[in-house]
Design a protein that fits this description.
By secondary structure, this protein is an alpha/beta fold. It folds into 2 domains: about 1-115 and about 170-245, 3-Layer(aba) Sandwich (Glutaconate Coenzyme A-transferase), CATH 3.40.1080.10; about 250-285, no CATH class. The chain is built from 8 helices and 13 strands. Strands 1, 2, 3, 4, 10, 11, 12 and 13 form an 8-stranded mixed beta sheet that branches. The longest helix has 12 residues, at about 100-115. The chain is globular, with a radius of gyration of 21 Å.
Length: about 290
């Protein structure tokens, strides 16, 4: 018996999302953003979403589309510095934000997908992360309407040294959205380079994981050793094709050497990997 997890469209894949749903979303910056699924949720019209993702896209891309339409009630993230509308909504009291250290956020998602309720980590000990008081929501008048509560701190002996650790609850969500380079009908996924980022962890945390894939293949066409996320974590797969738009968040280019450059300078430039058409950014491999 085969298990075909494919659905016809992104709209069909997200059709059962409801107001107030919790969603874990893969991606880092603009790299690996599941844009077809995000756009389908925007068209669906659901509101008061609680989203967990490393960041919230930018003003006109990624999760920024849902934010601009006032569909997100709460964000749990580790970096939010590229979105002006995010800043405005947070400071005006329209958006609740739980800032979480990046490694802790990754482990919260992984633990949630592994059935681990909570874990101890040294990250955040001695700061407001552990002691409480981080603003979660402002009142719109410069004051804080809601602050983070203090967390349990416990001492453990590590290699014979007493160290303090803070207790962090894991994260599990109703849905998860990820973008993959390739997937088969059983849900086994392969991510492209740095687009792997938070995606496997977000997928694990969702009760229903929806994966958009650029290429859909038959079961057995992906070498088991090349699978980045086993299909056990994926419930729905939708093919979006390889010609989808992929944005680069920050582009850096170098000038080509001039024809009159000294021979040694020209030779050095020729040996360098960067050219006038080259671009580097943390979105490589989206």
């Amino acid at each position: 018996m085969t298990i075909d997890k494919t659905v016809a469209s992104a709209a069909d894949a997200v059709a059962d999302l409801v107001d107030g749903a919790t969603i874990a979303v893969g991606g880092f910056g603009l790299c690996g953003n599941p844009m077809a699924l995000i756009s389908a949720i925007l068209d669906l019209g659901v509101r008061d979403l609680e989203v967990v993702s490393n960041n919230c896209g930018v003003d006109d891309w990624g999760l920024g589309l849902l934010l601009a339409a006032r569909r997100i009630r709460k964000m749990t993230s580790s970096y939010v510095g590229e979105n002006k509308e995010f800043e405005r909504q947070f400071l005006s009291g329209e958006l609740e934000v739980e800032l979480t250290p990046q490694g802790t956020l990754a482990e919260k998602l992984r633990a949630g997908g592994s059935g681990i309720a909570a874990f101890f980590t040294q990250t955040g000990v001695g700061t407001q992360v552990a002691e409480g008081g981080l603003p979660l929501r402002y009142d719109g008048h410069g004051g804080v309407a809601l602050s983070s509560p203090p967390k349990e701190v416990r001492e453990f002996a590590v290699r014979g040294r007493p160290l303090e650790f803070v207790l962090e609850n894991s994260i599990s969500t109703d849905f998860a959205l990820v973008h993959a380079l390739r997937g088969d009908r059983h849900g086994n996924l392969v991510f492209n380079k740095s687009a792997r980022n938070f995606s496997p962890l977000a997928a694990m945390a969702g009760r229903i994981c929806i994966a958009q894939v650029e290429e859909l293949v038959e079961p057995g066409q992906i070498d088991p050793d090349q699978v980045h996320l086993p299909g056990i974590y994926v419930q729905r797969v939708v093919e979006v094709g390889s010609d989808i738009e992929k944005r680069i968040e920050k582009r850096t280019v170098t000038e080509a050497p001039s024809a009159t450059a000294p021979a040694d300078t020209a030779a050095s430039a020729a040996a360098a990997p960067a050219t006038a058409a080259s671009a580097t950014s943390h979105t490589e491999g989206a």
